[in-house]
Amino acid sequence: MPEQQQWTITATEQPPEWFIQAVKQYTPASSGLYAAQLLWQRGIKDRQQLTAFINYKVYQPASPFEFGQEMHLAIARLQQAYNTKEKIAIWGDFDADGITSTSVLWDGLGQFFAQNTQLVYYIPNRLKESHGLNNQGIDNLAKQGCKLIVTCDTGSTNVEEIIYAKQLGIDVIVTDHHTLPAERPPVAAIINPRYFPKEHQLFNLSGVAVAYKLVEALYQSLPNVAKYPLEDLLDLVAVGLIADLVQLSGDCRYLAQMGIQRLQEDFKQPAAARRRPGVGRLLELCQKSGDRPTDISFGLGPRINAVSRIQGDASFCVELLTSRDVKRCNELAEVTELANARRKSLQKDVQAQVAQKLTQLDLSTTSVIVLEDAQWPAGVLGLVAGQIAQETGRPTVLLSTEGAGEQGSRSAGEQGSRGAGEQGSRGAEAQGSRGAEEQGSNSSLLARGSARSVNSVDLYQLVKEQAHLLHRFGGHPFAAGLSLLVENIPLFTAAINQQLRQSLGSTTLTPNVQADLTVTVADLGKELFLELKLLEPCGMGNPVPKLLIQNCWFENSWHRNQQDWQGKKVQYIKAEFDIRDDSSRSAFPGLWWGHYKDELPIGRCDCIAELDYNTFKKRYEIRLIAVRSSANSALNTQLSLTPFILDLRNQEHSATQHSGLIIEDCPTNWDDLRMWLRRCLASSRSTSGLENQQQLAIAWSKPNHQPPNQIWLTLVGIAKYLSRTNQLVTRGQLLEKIGISDQTLLVGIKALKYLGFTVQRQDRSLQFTWNPNDSAENLADEAVARFLAAVREEQFQQQYFAEVPLSTIVAIASYDSK
User: Fold this and answer.
1) Could you give the count of Cα atoms lying within 13 Å of 557 in the half-sphere of its Cβ?
2) Contact 570, 539 (CB under 8 A)
3) What is the tens place of the pLDDT at every residue in 331-390?
4) Nearest-CA neighbor of 596 among 744, 789, 392, 797?
5) Helix (H, G, I), strand (E, B) or coil at 630
6) How many CB atoms lie within 10 A of CB 556?
7) What is the pLDDT of residues 319-335, one digit of tens each?
8) Any residues with CB less than 8 A from the CB of 546 and at least 6 apart, and which?
């Protein structure tokens, strides 16, 4: 379970009056005080900085030739290819930054080189290949007659592969923003902003922005060739920049501001008139309008990333982003949306399994969380690792041994290169530095995984120190990807924990949530939203403002944990509510992703939230980030009840010593638990004094669930046996044998009837008779699917109650005690 979060409030230095008045010019409907406080906190402290930060039209972007000799070399090589009509291959990457980078080069270089004949592109398969160049893929491009490879968002450290390409007569231009090699590789040019000092306005460019700078330089060097303006690429640049979570300062901020403007303008057009109908359709599917950075970070970015996470091959995403064929783009957008729906479901499942494994760890002695499982799909591990790292305050490494032994042998050469008409982000698991490569033979069992960091721990350096135990690794300080022999996992776990403990010394790792401003419910709404919008686009170095609301409470809360999309059920949790405090008679709407309504504290509390505008519902709302009971309200009630609700879950034999009420069966809903809580409270009220209050022990164990398909087969097998032997069975016996609830059993019996079973009651028993009937096969499939869904939902609920914090249970008891 997550440790108690530590809340910190950013120290607020009151900005001078002249600065507040300068900000107010941009917020005529409000005082501008909150925006001024935030901007002052974040280092914007003079008029020139303020103007350039807010109004991109007065910002002076850097010339692409700031890259100096490397850019001149790149342009000279591209001009040579243009003059001699050489064939060029774009080598991209499979995340949102890599896909948009490839798309920028495809559209941009496509103004100078004929697409599909002179110009092709290649995106590695996420589930079969690593990031970066590989020899097999280079062989494939050589066979197609390519004489030049232009990488994007990858390639800086692929020295051996670059040498190999050169031996085959292929030059390489690297455009990238990742770790630099120790020495300049033998490339035609390498354009990487990491060569600049950190203060340079180009230093934080992501892969897509570097690709854009290359195209910009080519536009300037070969004027009057391109048919479409360079600015048409800016919407793609904004998507890649914001999705890749780079620091949005300098040219990054300028390009993102320009790109969002282009994105919004294009979306306002009818579908048939859009330059990018695929992007427009994606925005429609995720119910966004393209005018907010969050439309990218919560809408477009996750959907583009989901394709490679689920399908492996994300090459068609380039066509989705660049094609003007509305019908084709609509088809590809639907495939992308379906992949994202599947990603959500897988992510939720893996997160629940990781949470269960976490209960077996002693976090007080764990500095780096390292967990493995053979069933985890590698594509979603980075997302889940990020969530766990945030919840626990500890760097987290999640490893999958799914398909171990096959992973090291597949190559990019199997995939071939693609043009835009053929179907074929990087989070941080970037660029394959190699450790103990010789260990990764085809017969070895390789685990692949992702790592995420928090609390300013340099994860890349931490992983790099264990290179001798790894097959491959790569990344940056907050995220990394790695593979290693399964047998090395215990050694890796011990070593990386020891290393971080030594570097931390007496420092304790705890999850931390930071608030920027203290506001009231009366402050929430359009005026505050427009003030905070001055800071957009937000990202690393300029995060979305976090608002502390104190002494508030929640009303009208509800939740749902299932979404239907094209007939496919995707489980997730989202609580919705109204928030109130003493500052206003009106409530304000909000939501809390990944949580049940019952997890909201009862009574007064404090919360940290982000203010947002919901385009779909056309309303302003808050997104809850963290919540805790106020010290002077419900917390006191809960503290008085806490000693009388004992948490004996997963403790063998402890419940046998308890003389009060005991719950040993894991509930599947709050109503079951409330019944016991009310019995406990009713018994307590009949006693005289708290010292005689009857205790309630929650003593269920973690459920050991069978797969739903196995439960169905067991039920069918029992039904066939009972039919054959003409024996009777009680519902209680069936429930004990199969391990499901009575309500789910009824769904299963209905499914059995479609298979030809007749179920009759005899006193308190059931009699099964089987007469197979093929004519109802389709109906049987639907009925079985409903049963499997009911089992999954029941197991999901039991998993929740196996790990729900005691504080949440106490909160429910506190509510019922009023």
Assistant:
1) 20
2) no
3) 999 999 999 988 988 888 898 899 889 888 888 788 999 999 998 988 899 999 998 998
4) 797
5) coil
6) 12
7) 999 999 999 999 999 99
8) 513, 514, 515, 516, 517, 608, 609, 610, 625
